[in-house]
Design brief:
The protein has 4 helices and no strands. With about 110 residues, the chain is mostly helical.
């Protein structure tokens, strides 16, 4: 019994990691887990009709979680991000100034 539980947990974990970004992958990972544990997969067509509906909720939850994570990072890092933007703008301006100076030097040396 414990062996089946460990196999089930490991198979489900590996399947979930491997199929994270694939739509409707939950059904296929479920088939993998059922096969690994030795359970029948005869009624998978019934699960497919229910899984289609549940997949919409999983996708919505995933998108909302990603959006919340982005909002938290943005909120916590506002000062650092603004400082990085200023540094990048300064580097761009310095690069443009160097380019203009190099052009002017080339023009002066060609005269």
């Amino acid at each position: 019994e414990y062996g089946q539980i460990i196999v089930s947990v490991l198979t489900a974990t590996l399947a979930a990691i491997g199929a994270a970004g694939i739509p409707s992958a939950g059904l296929f990972t479920m088939v993998m887990v059922l096969n690994a544990v030795g359970l029948p997969i005869d009624m998978i067509s019934v699960l497919f009709t229910v899984d289609w509906f549940l997949d919409r909720f999983r996708t919505c939850t995933n998108v909302m979680g990603d959006a919340l994570g982005c909002a938290i990072v943005q909120r916590l890092c506002t000062k650092e991000l603004a400082e990085m933007d200023r540094e990048n703008e300064l580097q761009e301006l310095e690069g443009e100034a160097d380019t203009l100076l190099n052009k002017k030097d080339e023009e002066d040396s060609s005269i």
